[in-house]
Amino acid sequence: MRSHEIDYWIHGEEMQFVEIELDPSETVIAEPGSFLMMDESIEMHTIFGDGSGNEGQGVLGKLMGAGKRILTGEKLFMTSFTNQGYDKARVSFASPYPGKIITIDLTAFDHKIICQKDAFLCAAKGVSVGIEFSKKLGRGFFGGEGFIMQKLEGDGMAFLHAGGYIHERTLKAGEHLRVDTGCLVALTQDVDYDITFVGGIKNTLFGGEGVFFASLIGPGKVWVQSLPFSRLADRLVAHSGGYNRKGEGSVLGGLGNILDGDGW
Fold first, then answer.
1. What is the dihedral of CA 179, 181, 183, 184, to 10 degrees?
2. Which of 82, 87, 96, 252 would give a disulfide with 27, using CB separation of 3.0 to 4.6 Å?
3. CATH code, residues 7-238
4. How do residues 13-38 score in pLDDT, each as one tens digit?
């Protein structure tokens, strides 16, 4: 195996973190800002590239690896954590918002998983974090993630994070599942992924569920989140500043705030 073999434990319920145990000289890569804590013998380094360590030593290779991350909306650099001691040591990474951490063994999925661009949390060194272009125009324009999603490739362990509860669904050959485009977290490469129109004027204009669904046809496995961060953010913005208003809970509601001069 090219990737480092790691042991891990996931702690917590809604605000989880993953604790990874490294043997001497083992390394784990992670998204910047996800670090929680580590033992003294572990050293952190900022790396330039896709994190696999296989992009070459030349400047061009590293630029191409970093460019993949820019295209997916991630930061230019990643962080690596290496056990420089003589005994086992541990390092932990925390979820960025309420949800669940998904454990992916890439060897079980033909060495590749496709996921939404902000789902990656950390992985064993040797796992490549790249881009997956959509070959379908409809999916690219209306699929929620655009033409580009992330792909994780290699033979090691990877950890994803998504909001709310995570449901893992195995689709049989020809089985069709429609999902809200923002709720799709990850899928195996053998799943046929496209978008489909909701249909109906009333559904489109007043249904409140968007105009398109993600269309997933098996065989393969998909991961779905119950609370996308974008949905959570929209609700917070919609209700921000309203909890201490005089109209809260009244029949007039927001109109009462405007009438008493607090709504402007």
1. 80
2. 82
3. 3.60.160.10
4. 888 999 999 999 999 999 888 999 99
